[in-house]
Task: inverse folding
């Protein structure tokens, strides 16, 4: 199961990369269109949708790689029992919150689809289409927190390991 979930996180990360490329192309096309006095409806909205998709789709993969902000400096100063309690509490709270957000993201997509909600921008595209990426990213994020909790519970490692002596990821 872990291998399937890791492949799912990788797929979402690749989709996030594609979304960033779509955002780049949309923005560059918009710049070119303005210079050539063309009117291409909805390019700004599409760039925004692509950036939002990239953000949400990258959530599970970045959690797996340890790129989210974790309070490891505080945790390392605690006793091992306090670290254990704080880790479990954090994973349970994050799992509950991410499942809640995923539920409402999926509900938002369904309501937008059911009510035929359209974008207020010039292109008037159906809103459920860009909202799908948000819902998929939220589902992946919730799965990744549940996966992290299960890995912790069973004594496995979920987060990619830091280098020896490294307190946090730095770039």
Result:
């Amino acid at each position: 199961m872990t291998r399937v979930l890791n492949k799912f996180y990788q797929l979402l990360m690749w989709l996030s990369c594609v979304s960033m490329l779509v955002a780049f192309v949309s923005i560059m096309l918009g710049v070119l269109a303005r210079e050539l006095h063309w009117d291409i409806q909805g390019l700004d909205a599409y760039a925004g949708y692509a950036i939002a998709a990239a953000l949400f789709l990258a959530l599970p993969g970045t959690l797996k790689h340890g790129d989210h902000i974790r309070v490891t400096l505080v945790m390392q100063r605690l006793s091992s029992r306090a670290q254990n309690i704080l880790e479990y509490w954090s994973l349970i709270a994050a799992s509950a919150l991410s499942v809640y957000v995923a539920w409402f993201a999926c509900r938002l997509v369904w309501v937008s689809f059911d009510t035929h909600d359209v974008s207020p921008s010039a292109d008037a595209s159906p809103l459920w289409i860009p909202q799908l990426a948000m819902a998929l990213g939220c589902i992946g994020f919730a799965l990744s927190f549940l996966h992290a909790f299960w890995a912790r519970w069973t004594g496995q490692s979920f987060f990619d390991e830091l280098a020896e002596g490294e307190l946090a990821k730095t770039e």
In short: The chain is about 70% helix and 0% strand. The CA atoms of residues 109 and 129 lie 8 Å apart.
